Amino acid sequence: MSKQEILKPITLMGANASGKTEIALELARRLGGEIISADSKQTYKLMEAGTAKPRGTWTDTPAGPAYLVEGVPYHLVDNLDPRSAYDAGTFVKEAKAIMAAVWARGKVPIIAGGTGMYIQAFWNGLDELPAADPEMRRQLAALAETAGRDALHRELVALDPEAARGIPPGNVQRVIRAIEITRLAGRPVSQLWTGRFFDALPAHDGRFYFLKWKKELLAERVKRRTSTRFDEWAEETRGLLARGYPNDCPGLKTLGYPQVMDFLEGRLSKPDAIRAIVTASLAYAKRQNTWFARYKNAVLIELNKFEDYDPAALAERILTS
Q1: What is residue 211's three-state secondary structure?
Q2: pLDDT at residue 166 above 80?
Q3: Are 197 and 127 in contact (CB under 8 A)?
Q4: CATH number belonging to the domain at 134-191, selected among 1.10.10.60, 1.10.20.140, 1.10.10.10, 1.20.120.450
Q5: CATH 1.10.20.140 spans which residues of the chain?
Q6: Domain 219-283 is of which CATH architecture?
């Protein structure tokens, strides 16, 4: 990589449990960089075991309070109350302000995460759409909970068949948002999409890398991580509920936490809860890999055996590519 290329922001993306954090830290140490998390779960405070948030500490620095992981500033993690909602628009606004500050300090920004919508929105922008309606979202989420995801999706089919064809029933959040926009705008959401959101990533502005594990190996990593962290995850969730956080707050609705609550309330055994989390995690990983695979201008880093994962070697590969 030339000196000019090194100065470009680096975006490292991949499915959950693919090892993005360790590689991002290697890159940050070598470049004197700072990391911006593009992970919708790791932004929440008090939630570590279930989000794989990198372990760090809040420290006063000349630039203000910073979450430091192994001495590296790691932004947009551990900064939001679990009762609060977070979306792509908010991420873009905050991440762009952080990137500007990182540049002003003469550092290299490194975006690392698996929330594809955040990465796409950051680099290509968002369509002008109505703001969220919390009450409508609650009602639609309740419909999905009581009648099922297919019933919720049929609601979208009735309102906007074209949008429904592009959003699977399993992606409940996107189905809810599409219904919400259609109702608030008074016209089908598919008519409001400009298509800009799905443009290729701007390679002239940054460097993009996609970590892709062989399916069977990623499944093993997810199983291992879920089993290893489950007891800590259960204790963490028990603590959040004891603090008064409602079981339907945004933080506790993120991947895996509903299954942990089912375990705590006796609806699932520990083995069944672990299996349910692994199943949900792998389904999510499949969607993530499908999303990132469409970026033909991102450098694909394939991991076909466990020995391929060496953060130091992979960071070197990125810096010399």
Answers
A1: strand
A2: yes
A3: yes
A4: 1.10.20.140
A5: 134-191
A6: Orthogonal Bundle (1.10)
* pLDDT at 298 (0 to 100): 94
Phi, psi of 76 (to 5 degrees): 65, 35
pLDDT above 70: residue 288: yes
Residue 1 predicted with pLDDT over 60: no
Q: Which alpha helices (H) appear in 35-192, and where do they start and end? A: 88-104, 116-124, 134-147, 149-159, 161-166, 172-185
Question: What span, in angstroms and rounded, lies between the C-alpha atoms of 177 and 154?
Answer: 14
**Percentages helix, strand, coil for the chain, rounded to the nearest 5?**
55, 15, 35
Task: Cite the residue boundaries of each domain of the chain with CATH code 1.10.287.890.
Answer: 219-283
Residue with tokens 């873009």: 92
Report the predicted TM-score, pTM, of the whole model to 2 decimal places.
0.86
What does the pLDDT read at residue 162?
A: 94
- The predicted pLDDT at position 27 comes to 97
Tokens of 193: 């999409």
The candidate with the shortest Cα–Cα distance to 13, out of 123, 178, 171, 172, is 123
Confidence of residue 5 (pLDDT cuts 50, 70, 90): low
* Sign for the pseudo-dihedral over CA of 150, 251, 86, 291: negative
Report the alpha-carbon distance of residue 65 to residue 59 in Å, rounded: 5
Q: In what order do the strands lie in the sheet with 299-303?
A: 57-61, 64-69, 72-75, 34-37, 109-113, 10-14, 207-213, 299-303
Question: 193-241: per-residue pLDDT in tens?
Answer: 876 656 788 988 999 999 999 999 999 999 999 999 999 999 999 999 9
Report domain 3-127+198-214+289-320's class.
Answer: alpha beta
Per-residue model confidence (pLDDT) at position 155:
96
